[in-house]
Amino acid sequence: MWVRIPPPELRIQARDIGIQLPIPSLMRPTVTVEDLERWEDNGAVWRALEVSDEFVVVELCSCSGEAVDTLRSDAPEVIVYVRGRRSG
Length: 88
Description:
There is one protein chain. This protein has 88 residues and is α+β, with helices and mostly antiparallel strands. The chain has one domain (24-85). The protein is built from 2 helices and 3 strands; from the N terminus they run αβββα. It has helices at 33-41, 76-85, and strands at residues 45-51, 56-61, 67-73. It has a 3-stranded antiparallel sheet with strand order 1-2-3, with helices on one face. The protein is globular and about 45 Å long. The termini are far apart.
């Protein structure tokens, strides 16, 4: 039995209907200092959701403050940057 998968433009994404699915931390994309600076340069903002000595979790937001994505990093330079700023 074959299942036809619709093209990407016709697929309903969980985020399109307001559902947030948990993403295992190993699969979650990482963020760099350059990513955060580029995000700010384009007029958007970010918020630190979690900051520890081992990792940070950052929420990327639209220009209006709506959450767009959540990223994690264990890079020491990102931890220092986020700890010093907390939001951008």
